[in-house]
Amino acid sequence: MAEVATARRSRITPEREAELYEAVLDLLREVGYDALTMDAVAARTKSSKATLYRQWGGKAELVAKAVRHNKPGGAGFSKIDTGSLRGDLHAMTLRSDDCEMEQNSALMRGLAMAVHGNPDLLEAFKEHLIGPEMAEFNQVLRRAIDRGEVRADNPAIGFVMHMVIGGFAARSLIDEQPPSQAFLLSYIDAVVLPALRAPITG
Asked: Would you state the torsion angle of the CA atoms of residues 51, 21, 162, 192, taken in this order, to the nearest 10 degrees?
C-alpha cells in the first residue's frame, strides 16, 4: 500500500500539489463539500480527472489532504518544543493569524456538517487529519509528562484535543465572534492548563 501511495505522489510536484489543494479549499468555501465535484476540481486546476483519481483516489481523500496541507506547517505539532507545555501550546496557536483562523473556522464548520452524512469523508479525516494530529499532539503531551509538568495519570490528558477544538468551535457559537489568537491563548491559560494542573507561567 505504501509503495502504491509513493507511486501516486511521485507523479506530481510539491508545488503543483499545493496549487491543487488551494483550489480545492477555494471550491469548498464557494460551494461546500456535497456540491464539490472532481469535474469542478479538474476544471479549476486544469487537470484531468484521471490524474486526480490516480493521485488521491477520490473526493474524500483529496479534501482531507487539502485541509491537512492547509494547517500551518502541515500541522507539525511535534516539532514545536519550547521547553514548557504552555510555551508549546501558545506557539501552536500563534502559527495562524486571526484572518486564517476565521477562514478555517468557517471551512471546518461546513465540513463538520458534511462529515455526518459522508462516511468516506469521516474515514478520510480520521486517517489523514485527526489520526496524525492526535499522534503529534500526544508527543507534545508526552514531553510535558517527561518534564514533570503533567502527571501521567491526570484524567484530563485524554481530553486536551477535545478542549482545544471545543474552545475553537464554541467561540463562534456562543460569542458570535470568530476565534482569535488572543481568545485561544487566554482559553489555554484559563481552561486547558488548569485542567492538566500544568504551570500557567513560562
From this structure: 150
How high is the mean pLDDT in each 10-residue block of the chain (202 residues)? Answer: 45 88 92 93 93 93 91 66 95 90 84 89 92 90 96 96 90 90 96 95 70
Dihedral sign, Cα of residue 76, residue 160, residue 164, residue 120:
positive
Element at 149 (helix H, strand E)? none
pLDDT at 1: 45
* CA distance linking residue 137 with residue 160, whole number of Å: 9
Beta-carbon contacts of 196 under 8 Å, excluding residues fewer than 6 positions away, are: 85, 144, 149, 150, 154, 156, 157, 160
Q: Residues 53, 74, 42, CA angle at the centre, nearest 5°?
A: 25
Residue 157 and residue 141 in contact, taking contact as beta carbons nearer than 8 Å = yes
